[in-house]
Specification:
It is a single chain. By secondary structure, this protein is mostly beta strands. The chain has a single domain, classed as BH3618-like (Roll), CATH 2.30.290. The chain contains one helix and eleven strands. It has a seven-stranded mixed barrel with strand order 2-3-4-5-7-9-10. It is globular, with a radius of gyration of 14 Å.
Length: 141
Amino acid sequence: MTAITVLPPTDQDHAELHFAAGVPGFPAARSFSVKPWGTEPSPFFLLECHEVIGLRFVAVPPAVFFPWYEPWFGPEVFQAVDAEGPDDVRLLVILTVHSTAEKSTANLLGPLVVNSTTGQALQAVLSGSGHSPATPIVNRP
């Protein structure tokens, strides 16, 4: 298994994401456009599905809120997105945005693994990792 260095997307990262197997819970959701979300410059992205009208996700590089987050993946994850290894991919995590930042969460259990060159992507499920699909983005005292 290989750790991925969590880096923010670069200028050359793809503006379209393609999930060959769909997204867990949304098997028909295979193609997404990626746009900046919020006032620029912003680390947030809006992922808008082409197949499922109205399906949108807000995503962010996990290092924005979780600099310690370094998930491990087996070679099958890299193969699924046609990547040679960790240097060819970037991670995003899906946010659940609520009325306040204190109520908003990130899905660290299911990060998005994206081939930076082709836009091929998958949502990896880190079973047994101890990560949560609803990790608060703001630490509470």
